Amino acid sequence: MVSIEEFRKLAMSFPDATEEPHFEKTSFRIKKKIFATFDEKNNHAVLKLNEIDQSVFCASSEKIFYPIPNKWGKQGWTIVELSRVRPEMFEDALIRSYETVASQKK
Questions:
Q1: Where are the domains of the chain?
Q2: What is the DSSP letter of 6?
Q3: d(CA 57, CA 8)
Q4: What average pLDDT does this structure show over 5-30?
Q5: What's the domain of life for this entry (predicted)?
Q6: pTM exceeds 0.90, yes or no
Q7: Which residues pair with 20 in a beta bridge?
């Protein structure tokens, strides 16, 4: 299980990361682009993963990681059930999300 405090601490540890509101969610950004959001109501995160990382995480733990069931999911946006994910696995996924977005051109 990962708490919002752990999520926030890890997300904000990345270089140039910022925390900003995003509708009813909390977003974490690099270069003004979202790499993760936290949905308090549903206690889950949404991470931006590349196609390969998304398929690996989803295949390894279908009840913990799964694509958003719409066009955003096909673009790599992946739901993470924070009440089920192991902290080490979440950290790995969040790092990959940050790196995916940080490497994109402006």
A1: 4-103
A2: H
A3: 21
A4: 96
A5: Bacteria
A6: yes
A7: 27
